[in-house]
Design a protein that fits this description.
The chain has about 300 residues and is an alpha/beta fold. It folds into three domains: about 5-85, Winged helix-like DNA-binding domain superfamily/Winged helix DNA-binding domain (Arc Repressor Mutant, subunit A, Orthogonal Bundle); about 95-160 and about 265-295, 3-Layer(aba) Sandwich (D-Maltodextrin-Binding Protein, domain 2); about 170-265, D-Maltodextrin-Binding Protein, domain 2. The protein is built from ten helices and 14 strands. It has a five-stranded mixed beta sheet, with helices on one face. Helix 5 packs across helix 10.
Amino acid sequence: MSIEHLKSLGVFAEVAQQGSFRGAARALGMTPSAVTYHVQLLEQAVGGPLMYRSTRKLTLTETGERLRDAASNMRHMAETGLEEAINGDGTLRGRLRIALTVSLLRSPVSTALAQFQRDHPNVDLDLCYADTAHDLIAGKIDLALRAGVLQDSTLKCTHVWEMPRIIVAAPRFLADHGQIETLDDLAQAPWIKHSHLGSRRRLTHISGIFQDIEQAGNLSVDNIEAMVDLATHGMAVASPPRHYVATQISDGSLVEILPDWSLPAIPVHAIWPGSKVEKPMTKAFLAILSHHTKARK
């Protein structure tokens, strides 16, 4: 492989990410014709097309998809290697892009982020909060924190926390619906369901016994923030992470229901692109995150 092919792979990775030749040209400070040259050079090397182009859309071929992943990994390794050299004096510099689920707001993860910023003020933190999974390679994301059971993946992964949940309702809901004092009461009450999760819930008593119940009601939401907001307005019972409603529990706008029964905690994992060279900023943040989440276990 020639040096020119290595440059072409970097250009192709940008084209695949931008979804257009002009977008890649702007991002790379090149002319569209130069970008086209590098893609054509790779197509000659692999002996076939890497993408189908129209006036409105660019679609990768199967070969193009495989080469995109390899090219993106190559670029990630090169960027990481440069950061290792730049940060050789121990001072971290550059950008760290982290994708997080909204449920991690107000959690030990936020404490870890604040600590990381204090310890490494020269790092630009770029935080992406959403309840949908990001494509780490295409999105140039260095690290993602995901809640729930992970799908099989070629990404690197470590378990960082078990996020406890709590059953809550607003006083006005209990006044209208009636107090919930038993599991039978809870099974009859309407819930604010999470649309990304099943409606069956297993509750475990402090004595160790457990029982499954089906969530009743006809209200579903797609993120924790909406669930808590609607529960505070007295619409139904909810089961958010405990840390997410600490303020509402304290001021009385929400109350805990059946405190002797608990829901399974939600596992939280950190995932990041695999590479022989680990990004120094990623390693530094994971170390801080481990300290703060272990303190809450």
